[in-house]
Write a structure and sequence with these properties.
The chain is mainly alpha-helical. It has one domain. The protein is 59% helix and 0% strand. It is built from four helices and no strands. Helix 2 packs across helix 3 and helix 3 runs antiparallel to helix 4.
């Protein structure tokens, strides 16, 4: 799902590595389980590298992206 977001050009490609790193090696213990919550946290952590207006836009786009994500078991 992470890569799908970047392949679809929903977010700046330069954030792919930070988002991937934060999802698979989270900074916070609470996000170690691989859930939609930890996926969202990985994206928002990556967005911190953006300038304020672009960060706001990316955060708004994340809501649309996450709404269309189907959890897998």
């Amino acid at each position: 799902m992470i890569y799908q977001a970047f392949v679809q050009n929903r977010f700046p490609v330069k954030l792919m590595k930070p988002v991937d790193r934060e999802y698979f090696n989270p900074s916070y213990e609470e996000f170690k389980p691989k859930t939609l919550w930890s996926l969202e946290n990985a994206f928002t952590s990556g967005f911190k590298q953006l300038k304020p207006i672009r960060m706001y836009q990316a955060t708004a786009q994340l809501g649309t992206f996450m709404k269309n994500v189907t959890p897998r078991n």
